[in-house]
Design a protein that fits this description.
The chain is α+β, with helices and mostly antiparallel strands. The protein has helices at about 30-45, 70-90, 110-120, 130, 135-145, 150-155, 165-170, 180-190, and strands at about 10-20, 50-55, 60-65, 105. Strands 2-3-1-4 form a four-stranded antiparallel beta sheet, sandwiched between helices.
């Protein structure tokens, strides 16, 4: 039986999930994460994607993005092929790195995007190692986690050229042109639902 076609249309917003084949690790070293982020930046520009946020975990990845040109599958194909080729060459492996097709859920409500941004950005502190730690400690861990767009949202890291911050901040009542680290602290408070 053929796989169902992806729902793709201009201006669609998606929650994208990728998982390592058999839940295996897809980032063995920080250099792997750096390469993946580089490939994200290249692909976002190449396909005119509006990436709202992302989080890289050890064996999976989350994105929230918009496709003004209805080209999600082409974007993901380029990103995943480029990274898999790099990973297999570097680690002397072969075959599939990701488990099946990427997950893509259409997001159609602004309020849900804010909830989704909390879910995606809080992923690093919901792993077994940190889940039962005190809230203060989890907040510190989250603020130091370099492999998501969270630190740049709260002003702890410089803005990333390939992330579109405006839409999420605007949903909080903050116009993009008036963003500052202080405004981003509001985002930080919003995400603190530990």
């Amino acid at each position: 039986m053929a796989r169902p076609l992806r729902i793709e249309y201009e201006g669609a917003v998606y929650h994208i999930t990728l998982r390592g084949n058999n839940r295996r690790i897809i980032f063995k070293h920080d250099s792997d994460r750096e390469r993946f982020i580089q490939k994200i930046a290249e692909s976002v520009q190449m396909f005119d994607i509006r990436l709202y946020l992302f989080c890289l975990m050890e064996n999976h990845v989350h994105f929230v993005l918009e496709t003004p040109r209805a080209n999600l599958s082409r974007f993901m194909h380029r990103l995943l092929t480029a990274y898999t080729v790099y990973f297999n060459r570097k680690h002397n492996e072969s075959g599939h790195l990701m488990q099946g097709r990427f997950g893509a859920t259409v997001v159609d409500e602004d309020e849900y995007i804010l909830k989704l941004s909390r879910y995606v950005h809080l992923n690093p502190v919901y792993i077994k190692a940190y889940k039962n730690k005190p809230v203060r400690e989890r907040i510190q861990i989250l603020r130091k986690y370099h492999w998501s767009s969270y630190r740049s949202y709260i002003g702890k890291a410089k803005s990333l050229d390939f992330v579109s911050y405006g839409p999420v901040l605007e949903m909080m009542g903050r116009p993009e042109k008036k963003q500052s680290a202080l405004d981003r602290r509001d985002y930080y408070r919003l995400t603190q639902t530990l």
